[in-house]
What we know:
Chain A is mainly beta. Chain A has strands spanning 4-7, 10-13, 19-25, 32-38, 44-51, 57-58, 67-73, 76-81, 90-96, 107-108, 112-116.
Amino acid sequence: xxxVSQHPSRVICKSGTSVKIECRSLDFQATTMFWYRxxxxxxxxxxxxxxxxxxxxxxxxxxxxxxxxNHASLTLSTLTxxxxxxxxxxxxxxxxxxxxxxxxxxxxGDGTRLSIL
Amino acid sequence: RKEVEQDPGPFNVPEGATVAFxxxxxxxxxxxxxxxxQDCRKEPKLLMSVYSSGNEDGRFTAQLNRASQYISLLxxxxxxxxxxxxxCVGGYTGKLIxxxxxxxxxxx
Lengths: 117, 108
């Protein structure tokens, strides 16, 4: 069964709306979770590393004020796309490592397909 | 230059064929390597980890050559259900870097 749950799976909203995506580790604690974005026919690109109890680490070119990450508990990380615009439309996926070692295989959530009109 | 590079394909093969995918990585600090499979509009799923000694899981064999910074995946006796995109992944300092993916289409 799934070890990482992501919600919602699909969002369609108007430009300017803020959208929150949740990522939960099921039956295990994840001090670190990862947020990726995938545009059509492209690879997954790491956006940021979410660290429980501290600030997220963002990859180069990813605006931290645009993509707000909160990792308030050991089983939940949230990504908020603030004031979303059509160019933010993408497939957003989170992952976590069950073994607590971020170099080990990661389990992915089902992903959230975001469409901004 | 991308950190992890793959031939995007597509590779079109008949059922029963043997097909090999290659991948190169540029960061010599990469410590862990994986092959993930991604079906259309779905999340990636781990296919197998890749070890220096090479490893096999059923019809799938993965190889790692650290000297050449090269990873491979061999699929024997291809099935229709093997049709998917195969992602080569390198990891270091807690990050996973994904290749673009290689698309495989297995035809009847």
